[in-house]
Amino acid sequence: MRFGKGCSAGIESWYGDKGIRILNCSVEANAFGNETGSISETAGIRIHANDSLVAYSLIRDNFGHGIAVVRYNKDVFNVTITRNSIYNNTKLGIDLVNADNLEIAHRGDNVTLNDGVLNCSMANCGVDYPVITISELDGDQLYVEGFIGNESIGGSSNFANASIEFTWSGIQQMETVLSETTGATARSFPDTMERDGYTLEA
Ligand SMILES: [Ca+2]
Ligand SMILES: [Ca+2]
Q1: Ligand 1 midpoint to CA 111 (Å)
Q2: What's the mean per-residue pLDDT of the chain?
């Protein structure tokens, strides 16, 4: 299903209860304002409901963030965003938003820095993002190194079992998940990926 050219979020779950499932959707060119050009709420998709899932979807060219997971007036946690193609939105691909007022709830708060911990008084329990420290393309092989945790400290054991997805970006309509690291080493991840065959070597 396609959601495009909405004046605000393409898909909205404002004060939704729980269990929103968004699968196989195209969410494109939303949040460019109403007929007068006024823009009050942005993002391709806004998640404001626990236990929600966004997967196998194309989320691009939206004004604002691709997906905003918003904690406002209630906790919002256990949101899974996986195997999507998210690119060319004017702000972040995914914004975890800790909003204490409507303006932030509608527009996001941009990058929330890693602190190495999970804290469910933050949007989606304040899950940290992967930090890429090395990315080198050698022929058809891409070597990537990094960690999850406080950027000034390094990998945190709180994310030891995290999964990390890598995709080629912006080449095809639906990007392909190149590899996924799991297990105890995920807090620091050396990976070598081959473009042909999409194999993960390490
Ligand atoms: Ca944020
Ligand atoms: Ca955190």
Answers
A1: 4
A2: 84
Is the pLDDT at 169 greater than 60, yes or no?
no
Which tokens in the block code for residue 42? 């942005």
Q: Note whether 186 and 148 are within 8 A (CB).
A: yes
CA neighbor of 120 nearest in space, from 68, 74, 175, 61? 74
- The ligand minimizing its distance to the Cα of 128 is 2
Q: Is the pLDDT of residue 200 over 60?
A: no
Q: CB neighbours of 117 closer than 8 A, spacing ≥ 6?
A: 126, 156, 158
Helix (H, G, I), strand (E, B) or coil at 161: coil
Measured in angstroms, how far is the CA atom of residue 47 from the centroid of ligand 1?
Answer: 13
Q: Which ligand is nearest to the CA of 124?
A: 2
pLDDT of 170 higher than 70: no
Ligand nearest to the backbone CA of 96: 1
